[in-house]
Amino acid sequence: MWKVQGVTGTFVWDIMSLPRYDVILGMDWLALVNPQVDWVTRKITFSRQECFTLNSTQSDMEGVPAEYGEFSDVFCKKEADKLPPHRPYDCAIRLAEGAKLPAGRLYALTVPERQALREFLDENLAKGFIRPSSSPTAAPVFFVAKKTGELRLVCDYRVLNKHTIRDRYPLPLISELLSRVQGAKVFTKLDLRGAYNLIRIREGDEWKTAFNTCFGCHEFRVMPFGLCNAPAVFQRFINDVFRDLIDQFVVIYLDDILIFSKDEREHRQHVKQVLHRLQANGLFAKASKCVFHVPEVEFLGHVVSGRELKMDPHKVDAVNSWQELKTKKDVQRFLGFANYYREFIPNFAKLTVPLTQLLRKKQPFVWGREAHDAFLQLKSSFQADNILIHPDVDKPFVVEADASSYALGAVLSQRDSSGTLRPCGFYSRQLTPFEQNYTIWEKELLAIKVAFEVWRHWLEGARHQIVVRSDHKNLEHLQTAKKLNQRQIRWALFFSRFNFKVQFVEGKANLRADALSRKPEFKTNEQVVCQTILPTTSLCVVEGEIGLHDQIIEAQKEDVWTQEQLMLLSAGNRTILPHLQDQNGVLVRRGQVYVPVGALRLEVIRAHHDEPMAGHFGRYKTVQLITRNYWWPKMRQDILRFCDSCAVCQQSKTPVGRPRGLLSSLPVPERPWQIISMDFISDLPKSGGYTCIWVVVDLFSKLAHFIPCSTIPAAPTLALLFTKHIYRLHGAPEVITSDRAPQFVSRFWRHFHECLGTKLNVSSAFHPQTDGQLESVNGLLEQYLRCFCLDQPTAWVKWLPVAEFALQHRCAHV
To answer: Which of 462, 482, 478 is nearest to 470 (CA)?
Structure first.
């Protein structure tokens, strides 16, 4: 027992011989009582000594066990309403250099709000929390309704926050706080009264908190809600007050304090230490919001016990009553709420795909069937009895991971006393556009890597070997693989920090992780990754006539078979053909619009074969062009039959056959416009003053430029054309392949490209097979011009730009 300045307490002392002192009060005692030290006078005082003799009212102590009666002042509302002292933790408002705060304005208030405002001002002026102000800047105020129906005043500090230098002190991770209580059996939760008001505004900064009302301008002397740095300031203060107790038997998130212990006797001592710390630092709790000595407790929106973690049932009820979403703001609110509990909901990332797509910029808000189904399914997920157990470091961990082409998912599990595998956490997310380009092996490996990153604090340094369950058998050889690319090498270095083995399981045995990445109803959102060397901006949809797509949609509305399938889909029944989907009232199959039976099918083929934008290309290229956007049963046979019977193609195209002789390929370029070929098509009918075409082809991307010339140009003129049409757009190539035309072997041409650093390769005389790709493009261009200039041979020059477009966007057949 000790007593100093009228304050008493108990402490464990070491007995020893002290010749000069009766007792030495060490750091443990100082940390326990936390007195104020005056280094000038060399005295210590207790900041709230007078509180120990005050008695709280009976209502202030309602619900507090009698054994904590000595801490009645901690629950005293009258004391909490007093102006707190200045501390080193006062809230400083540091403005950015050159910040200009505008003069405040007034918001219009209703009669009830004006009454609530007057009561707020009277109450806080009496407490000393605010005072009249003559600040040159002030924030407007408005009111929001509490759950009880009362009105709460809010200061609109958005402008002040914009110019305030941010305090980056971190708030605790809620997931980590919840994991700290593993193994506890008794809990007490304390809620601080007027939390932010327990901190003073730094002296001299009060004017920055000024707010305007119809009753005048006032400023805060205590820290108000709404300041951007308020959470960081308060968390720093409360962490320092309980620094030695945090994670021992206390976890704190702002004004919520959770005390946890393994038995009742130990718990009482822990609660007393916390209350004593509050008492010594002039902090107060609200008894009506505190809970004492319970086996499980609601904390930060979760129901916490020593063995498991559950969602707050009140929050689940709130989701059940959530009305259908009507605006983007409604979607943001709902997803923000649901995201807080994503660790309880398997497949959360994919469940929310149709909803998150509604939040895209420049996209109109259309509440369709997919969004409605996702909304209902997400609400039903809150009803599932998804209870998470606390990870136990003394037990082995099991990680189940899986990936699809557009998402990944993982489950962290451990076995309970009965041997049943119980989840400790769920995780899922969509793949980024870059990750969607990974191979299947890399996607499955990425799912494991992400799982290890999310639960690193449990898995790194685990006492037992981690078992990773995957339905991708090749991953069993991950740790012995010999050939790895640069990305896989980086991942291998990351995996070296963990002791794990990969265990192959059949897909049907990997249901939980599989459900996180392969939910069937979300396959409609699977993105088809464009595996092409062309930039996406270079690709477009080719339609022969404006309105063809609209005609197909109108035809679907009158087609009996189409409407039958849409009715089956809307009722949730299986359709006759697989992969059919209802996309806002349009029947599609894997993203391709269904074309009903009739003349429209022939029109679709004609638009993608006969039109100038299509180019009368062959049967396989036409199939590829149409299947980008449309589908109907046996469409391939219809397209092949049409192309084989095309009269224009039969008249204009030259027969093709297999090449003769021994061939060797040109070097394969590594990037676009690294190696190019060029040639002239000459002796054409005069068209707009031009008689020949200079053809330049990139051997990497197969892109080509068709440049009309009045005659075959001399080397200096050709150099100017090269600079204007090629160098300006693509830079200097490393290699140019051409025939032995005089222009290409001239001294001027060679010297010109020596300056550019380009190597010139010329073919053997009378051997066009040297550059087969260029000759192929020449043949396609000549074929195109024959198809569209058969009746007007002198009009070929106006078709060149369209021919270049058609050739750039044709599909290659392999």
So the answer is: 478
| CA angle in degrees (0–180, nearest 5) for 657-658-663 | 140
pLDDT of residue 526: 43
Q: Is residue 356 part of a domain?
A: yes
13 HSE (CA, 13 A, CB side): 11
318-362 pLDDT per residue, tens: 566 677 787 888 888 778 777 766 666 766 777 788 888 888 777
Long-range contacts of 273-277 (CB under 8 A, 24+ apart): 273/32, 273/245, 274/190, 274/242, 274/245, 274/250, 275/68, 275/71, 275/74, 276/9, 276/32, 276/33, 276/71, 277/32, 277/34, 277/241, 277/242, 277/245
pLDDT band per the 50, 70, 90 thresholds, residue 386: low
Two structure tokens written together for 792: 């007007």
Q: Where are the alpha helices (DSSP H) in 293-414?
A: 313-320, 328-339, 348-351, 353-356, 369-381
User: Which residues touch 400 (CB under 8 Å, ≥6 apart)?
Assistant: 410, 411, 413, 468, 469, 470, 510, 512, 513
Q: Is 138 left (phi over 0), alpha (psi -120 to 50) or beta?
A: beta
In a domain, 646, yes or no: yes
H or E element, residue 655: none
Q: What is the DSSP letter of 364?
A: -
Residue-wise pLDDT for 782-810, tens only, equals 888 888 887 788 889 998 998 888 887 76
Shared-domain flag, residues 516 and 558:
no
Q: Measured between alpha carbons, how far is residue 767 from residues 656, 661, 675, 701 in Å?
A: 18, 12, 19, 24
Do residues 504 and 412 share a domain? Answer: yes
Q: Contact at 8 Å (CB) between 706 and 804?
A: yes
Are 721 and 661 spatial neighbours (Cβ–Cβ below 8 Å)? no
Label residue 221 by pLDDT band (50, 70, 90): very high
Furthest CA-CA distance within the chain: 122
Token pair of 488 as six digits:
């896989």
Q: Say if residues 230 and 91 touch (Cβ distance below 8 Å).
A: yes
For residue 293, the number of C-alpha atoms closer than 13 Å in the C-beta half-sphere is: 15
* pLDDT tens profile 72-85: 888 888 888 888 88
- Distance CA(370)–CA(356), nearest Å, equals 12
For 406-465, strand residue ranges (E) read 407-415, 421-430
Q: How many domains does the chain have?
A: 4
Q: Tokens for 370, please give them.
A: 């997919």
Q: Which domain holds residue 374?
A: 309-345+352-381
Whether residue 725 is contained in a domain is answered as yes
| DSSP β-bridge partners for residue 737 | 677, 761
Q: Determine which helix (DSSP H) or strand (DSSP E) holds 7, and give its type and residue range.
A: strand 7-9
Alpha carbon separation from 326 to 256, 323, 334 (Å, rounded): 35, 9, 11
Closest by CA position to 426, among listed 409, 405, 442? 409
Strands 630-631 and 592-594: parallel
* Run of H or E residues at 144: strand 141-145
Q: Would residue 774 count as lying in a domain? A: yes
* CATH number of the domain within which 477 lies: 3.30.420.10
Residue 382 token pair: 């809150």
- Dist CA 246 CA 252 (whole Å): 7
Q: Which of 684, 683, 677 has the alpha carbon at shortest distance from 705? A: 677
Residue 353 · residue 376 · CB < 8 Å: no
